[in-house]
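Structure catalogue
Derive tokens from sequence
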Amino acid sequence: VTGVQTCALPISLTPGSAERGAVLGTITPLKTTSPSFSPEVNTASGDRNPFLSADGLTLLFDSARPGGAGGNDLYMATRASTSDPFGSVINLGPDVNTGDSEAAPALSADGLTLYFVSNRDGGVGSNDLYMATRADPADPFGAVTNLGGSVNSATNDNNPTISTDGLVLLFNSNRDGGWGGQDIYLATRTDKIGRASCRERV
């Protein structure tokens, strides 16, 4: 995502408005007894920011559970089909997780690129957006890359979401020049090689 630029994009969501799709029903906590989750998914620690892959077979989340590398680590659970429960939870390992905190994972539609937030040393600001790639969905994620100063700011950049085509990255930030404490931003590129264009603020 080298060269991706950012512009402020204020987005207003109206709960229940018809043009934004169906309204969700009752929200039920996912207990460890749920048929879709192994007892390893939810723990007594903080398990947060779940992300379900496009095919519904991979669950990513961050957790402060014991045994991790730092404050929060990224974890993954998989299943063979959408009718199966998620299996054992695995830590994404030292190539992704550090002694600091990693959070808010998001996965590209092809399952090959992981986006997340970290406050590790060497970033542009307090929380930066990072990515890691792999050649095949069965492979572990490799070395991590900071998305750079054209995306990250000197403050906090969080909660990345990548579009299905991989060309638009949405995230929130409290950088200077926004509308409030946390604003929604987007970064665009014209192809996956990374040539970028910028959408003007609405």
